[in-house]
Amino acid sequence: MLNKVSKALKKPKLPKRAEPKNWQKLWEGIEKMREKKDAPVDSMGCDECGDKNADKNTYAFQTLVALMLSSQTKDKQTFEATQRLKNHGLTVDEMIKIEEEELADLLYGVGFYKRKAGYIKRTSQLIKDKHEGIVPSKLDDILKFPGVGIKMALLLQQGAFGVVDGISVDTHVHRICNLLEWVDSTNPEATRVQLQDWLPKSKWTKINHMLVGFGQTICKPIAPLCDECGVSDLCPMAHWYSPPKKKKIGYEDDSGSSEFVLKEEEKGPSKKVEEKKEPKHRKNTRASKGTQSKDDKFFNNYLKKLRKKKITEAEPPTLDELEESNIYIRKKRTR
User: Fold this and answer.
1) Active-site choice (151, 245, 280, 309)
2) For the region Disordered, what residue ranges are annotated (predicted)?
3) Which residue from 146, 156, 279, 312 lies 20 to 30 Å from 52 (Cα-Cα)?
4) Domains, the chain, ordered by start
């Protein structure tokens, strides 16, 4: 009976997403625009932070640390912080020896740098104790490290070990894939699942780097450069959220030539916004109820304290009292 109930409660699997129209043309167009490699991710991405001349395990650990620092942080700050760590010594043993406060100072400028310093210390100790100082390549083992999510784990696998277990989706990939209507999702994890349904596996390692750079240079989250985009004619959302342009009108110049000159449309007189009049039955409700303003209430309470102390003249409140109340009052005298 329990088995039947549990089976009935299971949600049916969603059908696989079909290939979007013109996705190959869009891919080729974006790939062509990315040939310049002028995005920050091309020179300061996490795969560029590690020392490629070092041994495989050292490079894997440095890439892992860079990925941990990259969360909520721009590529430039991540790259600079990783370089400071490399100058200190970015190995498992060195990260175990260093004090957490000193490590946090080296990470200053990175988002949540104090928390990430603790993550790096704990991760280094886990690698030392459970993996004999060697960075694991299995997805399940990587996900056990504090502060490491599915996106970081997949990027580490691809960059350091050449293993492809899935598509790494960050904010740029999630946003652009929805704009191109390659997916219809509300979070990066749903985007990853839908992309893996139809995108050929040979392109899984390329899509993250390609779309991140595309999002940094052309398809920006704010003020995208749709006019400079080579696939705007295929993009269903091209110019949809571009800043609105001023309306222009054409007219013939004084010389009588047939050429039209662009001129800004003159704005008409601004409409005056009438102030809403308060109904008569609602006027002076505060006074009728006998309530006091914050200033008067604060000052009257202050006078009561003074009367208890038998002080005839009220001095202004102290700065501490003003800061606590956030009210500035004038000097008053007792009657």
Assistant:
1) 151
2) 1-20, 260-298, 313-335
3) 146
4) 19-228 (1.10.340.30), 291-335 (no CATH)
pTM here? 0.68
Three-class DSSP labels, 78-145: HHHHHHHHHHHCCCHHHHHHCCHHHHHHHCCCCCCHHHHHHHHHHHHHHHHHHCCCCCCCCHHHHCCC
* C-alpha span between 326 and 299 (Å, rounded): 13
For residue 36, how far is the Cα from the chain centroid?
Answer: 25
Phi-psi region of 147 (alpha: psi -120 to 50; beta: other; left: phi over 0): left
How many Å from the N-terminal Cα to the C-terminal Cα in the chain? 85
Report the pLDDT value the prediction gives residue 300, as an integer from 0 to 100: 66
Other beta carbons within 10 Å of 110: 24
Q: What is the pLDDT of residue 327?
A: 41
**Cβ neighbourhood burial of 252 (10 Å; 0-12, 13-18, 19+):** exposed
Cβ atoms of 120 and 82 closer than 8 Å: no
Pairwise CA distance, residues 143 & 128, whole Å: 16
The pLDDT of residue 286: 43
**283 included as an active-site residue:** no
Predicted confidence at residue 268, as pLDDT, reads: 45
Q: Give the residue from 238, 217, 214, 237 showing the smallest Cα distance to 226.
A: 238
For residue 47, the model assigns a pLDDT of: 93
Please tell me the distance from the alpha carbon of residue 170 to that of residue 71, in angstroms, as a whole number: 10
